[in-house]
Amino acid sequence: MAGLCLWGAGVQVGEALGAAGMGLTVIGLAWLQLDRRSPRLRAPAPATDARAAPTTDARAAPATDARAAPATDARSAPTADERPTDAQNRFAPLRAYWPLGAYVAWALAAPLVAGELPSSAGLFRTLDWAFVAVGALAFSELGALGRRAVAIACGAALLTSCLAAALQFFGAWPSREAMEPLAFLRIPFDRVYEPASADSTSHFMAGGLLFHRLKFAGVSGVFTLWAVALAVELRGRERIAATAVATTGALSVLVFPVARAAALALLVAIAFTAALASPRRRIALALGGGLLVLGGAAAALNPEMRARVAAATSVTGDEDRVYLRRAAMVAMVKHPVVGLGAGRYHAFDYISPDSPESVRTHPGKAHLQLLSIAVEAGVPGAAIFLAMLIWLAARLWSRQAAAGLGVLLYLALTGLLHDPLFHAETSMAIAFGLAASLRSFEGPPRRG
Fold it and tell me: Against a cut of 0.85, is the pTM above it?
């Protein structure tokens, strides 16, 4: 629980805190596996006849006939073979998530065969997909109280980040001079002092606690979708609290970072999540449509957002995206099978001479997520990635896992104009959101 709390709340503050939470989650699972006195390992056998219940969990029943067992406590008696069986091994269910492992293995191993080592950032961003399975297993170990604690921690972090974004957007954030003593933290404070548009003098591009508008939009969008699903699922005061968090998160992403692609993608994902999560289809459609209209109105009332949306005049995108995608296509043609390696693609290495100066020094990606993956993992890697997403969508297709499907939709839509997985915090948040949806409302994973 501590690991998941730190992962979900920490990733809304910085990569280091989120990574610490992911590591703590692994340590917690390993500790449970090694601890033979864990309640799940020494739970007493059910009150039914042991001989008539062949499907009883091997961890909960002694190996011999329960009526012939000695009077000692069977829960404390060691087994003949101290090696954990699949029934005892908490990591055995990870095999059910083999499509995630297939993508991670290809993305890391295929370029390695060609002598292309992944960068440190590329390595960890690829491993985030393995943590979808690890996080799902961790959530399955939590009871209702544990899941509630994680939701409260994540909701509190989201509200705090949204408050910071509001102060930054309206120019009420401390000045550059006031933040100078914190320069040793190497936090990009300067980004939140950029005007929201060329004509704006009172509004600024907010980045929340992440101090980066695209990271704030991506991460906050994921946790907003989770709050939307909880608002539909829960009852009473918990529903009111989840609704407040979801509303605050949605309005903050729509207005403060002035991120048009994230805002439009979040609107569609919210409507889809609300519609799928509700048990009553007519109410669901009305709720989803209402959220779509209200959110669109909120974004339309923002003059900076209107200006940026109006600038998008082509399907391929405005500004420098055309040149960036051409450069990515050149790189993909040169390395079609195994790619360049995770984190090894830089646009300026393949940019055409006639490109604008701002593009020729651009260190980023293709601004099209699937194309960026094809460049770094090859065309087969992109195909495996797409198949993995389809597999996840099929596994998540249920009312209880609506948030996970919303996160996948959010990733797909923002990936048409950006590379959301390029930012570590966004990648880690997406892994968390998918993990929470995979196992939050289900029991332990079952193969098949």
Answer: no
